[in-house]
Amino acid sequence: MTEQQDGCIPVGVDLGTSTSKFCDGAKVVYFSSVAGDALTEQLETSWRRMNRSTDRRWLHNLALWDEARQTWRYIGAMTRSSQRQQWFTEGGVLQNFEDAYLAMQAGLFLLGVEREASLGRVAMGFGIPIKAGEEASERFLDKVRERLVTEDGKRIMKIRAKNVATGEVKEDSIELVFSLVQFQAYGAYMVLLFRKFGLKLYNTYVVDVGHGTWISLPVVENEADIAIAHSTPAGIHTITGNISTALFEKSAQKVKIQEQRIMEKIAAGQREVEVPGAGVFNFGAMLDAECEALAEDIMKKVRMDVAALGAKGVSLDYVAIVGGGAKLVFNGLKSRIASFFGWDGPMADERIVGNEALGVDPRYANAAGLMLLARDQLAIDEGKDVDTSLNIQAVASDRD
Ligand SMILES: Nc1ncnc2c1ncn2[C@@H]1O[C@H](COP(=O)(O)OP(=O)(O)OP(=O)(O)O)[C@@H](O)[C@H]1O
Ligand SMILES: [Mg+2]
């Protein structure tokens, strides 16, 4: 059960540099963190006539009415038709509040579409980036509150959405019962707390390897150690960018393979790109070297932080490795951490958690855990025991 007795649904929100992720406990929805200008009505009509895609889902063809600009805007995959695209976040920091507000509306609306019923009442766990973004995130939530309209004393988010492929327009009203903020990576800790630790407190060091950033966040006695937490502006994007540049140099500056194409290949588990007229390029060795280098950088930070924590008398019980980049650095980082602490195989398997042991895809771990945070608060408000289950049955993206 994901719904509370009073029908309020906890939702976790993680607006990342590359994708925005939303979780209601049973479903995950994610889409590219990008908004763009809509076509004119006339162009949109002819686009609809000529659109050859068979994907007519809302998630793939979404436009939202932007109240601030009094115009339709495209979101996620639909921005393929926008002349100008704007990413909501950069280096993990919210760039444009209006666009981020649209993303929030889009995610809540789309979760409703996936459930085949509006969310109705929502308790939100909102993930904020570390440090640089903290204040901005508070201001962002103030902005969100300004946008809500009051009806019968309730704070309501009004959403007007259009499926550009079908032309259908839908309206949605969602009551925002409360919104909590926490660091994005704290979400992953909540997943462990609820699903692995059985609500016992273990000091946990979370490493979140994303698209534009990697984050290190120690959680000690259930609290994020803000003084040590850090976000570094490098991630999987850095790796694919470096590979793109190296291939260009290697081909005597003849072949330019976009960083995005390499990214797509990696995500599909492939290690080769074919360039018509130039041949097939295998970047497997380069990728391995880049991942080792990133693991080494992260390990430097871990060593420093373990020393700083030790000086405060704190030792670590667990290390979690999450984010879309977790799969790429997991092995390299795990072996470094294990040998640093002197943990043997079984101990390392228990205490260094990523991939399978997390029980949820490391990419959605934060969104899922932020949902648990909201669910926990609802239970506290109601004076009930919290439901610690997490059973994600469906994951939907704008580019299926
Ligand atoms: N299966 C996969 N194998 C390798 N890399 C992947 C895979 N799936 C996604 N990625 C990469 O993970 C990155 C996205 O990770 P994630 O969604 O955690 O980032 P983000 O939260 O958007 O970014 P940030 O945390 O930096 O703001 C992308 O660079 C993507 O290419
Ligand atoms: Mg992220």
Task: Give the helix/strand layout.
Blueprint: E1 8-15, E2 19-23, E3 27-32, E4 34-37, H1 41-50, E5 62-66, E6 71-75, E7 85-87, E8 89-90, E9 93-94, H2 97-115, E10 121-128, H3 134-147, E11 149-151, E12 154-163, E13 169-183, H4 186-195, E14 204-209, E15 214-220, E16 223-224, E17 230-232, H5 236-250, H6 259-267, E18 272-275, E19 279-282, H7 284-311, E20 318-322, H8 326-341, H9 345-351, E21 352-353, H10 365-382, E22 394-397
Helix pairs in contact: 4-10, 5-6, 5-7, 7-8
Bound molecules: adenosine-5'-triphosphate (ATP) and magnesium ion (MG).
Adenosine-5'-triphosphate binds next to helix 5, helix 6 and helix 8.
Q: What name does CATH use for the topology of the largest domain?
A: Nucleotidyltransferase, domain 5
Give the distance, in angstroms, between the N- and C-terminal Cα atoms. 27 Å
What do we call the CATH homologous superfamily of the largest domain?
A: ATPase, nucleotide binding domain
- Helix tally equals 10
Residue-averaged pLDDT, rounded?
A: 93
In the residues, how many domains can be counted?
Answer: 3
What compounds are bound to the protein?
adenosine-5'-triphosphate, magnesium ion
* CATH level 1 class label of the largest domain: Alpha Beta
Question: What would you call the structural class?
Answer: alpha+beta
